Amino acid sequence: MIGAFRSRQFLVFLLTGGIAAAVNFGSRILYNQWMGFSAAIVLAYITGMVTAFVLARLFVFRNSQRALHQSALYFVLVNGVAVLQTWAISLLLADWLLPLLGVEHFVHEIAHGVGVVVPVFSSYLGHKHLSFK
């Protein structure tokens, strides 16, 4: 399993995932202008997820044998788990841990940034073995 994280494919996954994460993070700030933090996290995650799917299909898992609709279904399922991780970590940090540590500035940005990073490894394995098998 460790070998899977030492491949060129994983590096490209990190790069395309980084782009999708930037879309996720930036759109959360934009959405947060019109809705609460919790809802903005979920909507931003969906925006980033669409970006990630397109980039993963084009650049990471080009040799996938799955039909597009099957890949999309598994992609959504894998990301359903990941969005729960992102949401829970973000709220835990923003509402409890960061205030406990005395962090007063950029609390939502720090919390959401950490929340976006947490599911990288589980998402890669899920997409490699399910979404783009």
Automatic annotation (TrEMBL):
Keyword Transmembrane appears in the UniProt entry: yes
UniProt KW keywords: Membrane, Transmembrane, Transmembrane helix
Example GO BP: polysaccharide biosynthetic process
Residues that span the membrane, as ranges: 12-31, 37-60, 72-94, 106-126
Origin superkingdom: Bacteria
Annotated family: Belongs to the GtrA family.
Protein name: GtrA family protein
